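Structure representation.

___
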Amino acid sequence: MTLPVPLAEYHERVEKCQKSAESEGLDALLAISRSPDRSGHVRYLSNYYNPISYNPSTNISLGLGYSAVLISKDQNPVLVAGFPPEESAQEVAVSDVRVFPFMSNFAASISEVVKSRALEHSTIGIAGLDVLSAQAYVELVDRLPSARLKNANHIVEDQRMIKSENEIVLLRETGKLADSAVDSAIETCRDGKRECELAGRIAKELLDNKAERVFWIDVKSGPRLRYPITWPMASNRRMKKGDLIFFDIGAADKNGYLLDVSRTFVIGKPDREQRELLALTYDMSREVIHACRPGVKANELITFAREYVRKETKGRNLRIKPDIESISYAGHGLGFEIERPQLTTEHTEELKENMILSPEPGITVPDLGAAVFEENIVVTEKGGKLLTKNIHKIW
């Protein structure tokens, strides 16, 4: 796994973290990640990915799946790795690599590295408290009784939200992988096929095209699509003609960047109500994407979506009656994982140029079903620019 961006860009990321930490009165910043689902901080700063997934902590192995990068003033960063990077052919952007044994105590390893840098009496910001188990945190506090630990997740998160030109180039390729998965799903979905079979075909397409990991494949059909969230993600139900079909795909590409796309369509010829639902949802999603410009607040996208549906429901003389108030979620940021900003009614964070978003406002019609068309976009002055492009208007 070679460096996806130039080495100099990693150095710039570390330097920005150093400056941000210093401006907030911190002597050091400890960025923590956990595989497989929360690898972003460490990967962003070093390109390291722990090949062993997180496991419940025990007194013997407190920290399976964890890794960290310690950044301090006027010193090179330290990568605390669960396995030697070379064992999984990983090229990392940090020269000082400390490997803690497979079945060992992550908190003990971190405290040793902190002491080796004479930081045990310092103020240390932690980016990744939300991924560190309470057990590991308590032990870290016990092992560093004179250190002052503070929540500093925002320092790395703020940087990661704005993508560099190099990252945007990579994410265009991620979009192509998403498109191929969508193509495969549309071509494969047939009358009589089970939801789980469709999910398996999508997973094969992703892995055949060098996806690093598949995180979720959600397939719902017919009556299971009458509710926004149902379980299991893909059931044994056989899909049939006339069914509304929804699928949502989340996977990491070969560079670790996440794709998150969804589509809704009908097997066979849709009836009038289904066509109205699909067309209205698709058009609404385009309006929201166009509104994704710098300065727009996250929760304003919800307002745009609701107002558009309210206006079009009357203007088009539609037969369907959408539940407009149920439009309360419009998506999220995207990078190495699902990131800020969250596009909800509660979040007022402003969009900024070169954010990568995954807009997914959906429409629910009681007794008919729900529809979503989720894309991956980059925020520009002219509105959201699509990174995913394959749309099948089969209605």
Notes: The two ends are 42 Å apart (CA to CA).
